[in-house]
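Sanity check

After download, print the first record. It should look like this:
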Amino acid sequence: MSCRVELEKRFGGRLSVDPQLGRQIVSYQGNKGLPGLRWMKYKEGFSKALVERFLEEKSPSDLLDPFSGLGTAPLVASGQGVNATGIEIMPVGVLAATGISHAANGLDKKEFHAMRTDLLRWVSCRKKAGLSYRFPHVGITEKAFPEKTEQDIAKAREFIEQIEDSPMRDMLNLACMSILESVSFTRKDGQYLRWDYRSGRALRSHVDLGEIQDFTDALENRLREMEDDIEEVKDTFGNRYPQLLSGSCLELLRGLPDASVDLIVTSPPYANRYDYT
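Expected C-alpha cells:
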C-alpha cells in the first residue's frame, strides 16, 4: 500500500469538503486590493476572509501557520487579539509580514513620510553607490535589470543600511523588494521566468514584456501606497505583534511547547523550487 493511501486511510475521517469556499476566498485574489496585503505581489496564499471565517467559527486562543507565506493568517489573527505564530522559510515572506506588523503597531506615519522622501532624494541625486552595495546576483538573476536600475538598487541599499530604526528599515526594504519584478527584464510564469529580449541573455524566443518601469518611479508609487495604507493597516492588524519565525517548520516546530496551539490555518507548499532559489 502506498504512503499516500495509508495517510488517506489514517486521516480520511478528519477531512471535509466545503462547497461554499470559492476560488477567491481560498486563493490570494481577495487580498490584492487590501491595505498592507497588497504591498507585495503574491499568488501562493489564501485570503484574509478565509482566516476571519475560521477565527469566527473556532474562537482560538493560539493560532499557527507553519507555511505562512506573507503572513496572512498570523497577521489577521493577531489583529483580532489572538496569539499567533507564523513560520516561513522564504526571508521575503517574513520581511513582508514583519513590515505589515510594524505599520500596524506603532510606526509613525509622519516619520515614514520623511524617510521615504529622503530615500527617493538619495536615489535620484547620488551619483553612485559603493561597490559593496551592488545587487547580490545568483546565476538565475544575472542580467535581470537595466544598468541604471542596478545602480539605483545599489543606492537604495546603501541608504537603507544606514537606518538604525529597524521597523523603518524593514518597511523601506519591503518597498524595494516588492517592486523588483516590475523593474526587471523578467516575469514569473508558473515554474519559470520569462525573459525579455532586451536582457541580453541567449533566449530561444523573442519575448517583449513591454515597458519596464523605472526603479525610482516604481519605488515612489509603492512608498506612497504604503503611506496611504498605514492608518487602515493599524485598524485591521493593529493589536499585537504575531510571532514570525524565519526557517523551516520541520526544525522550528520542535521548539514550540506541546499543546500550545488550538488552531492551524495553513496551505502546504507545492513540491517545486522556483520560489526558493
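If your output differs, re-run the checksum step. Summary of this record's structure: Residues 108-233 form one domain.
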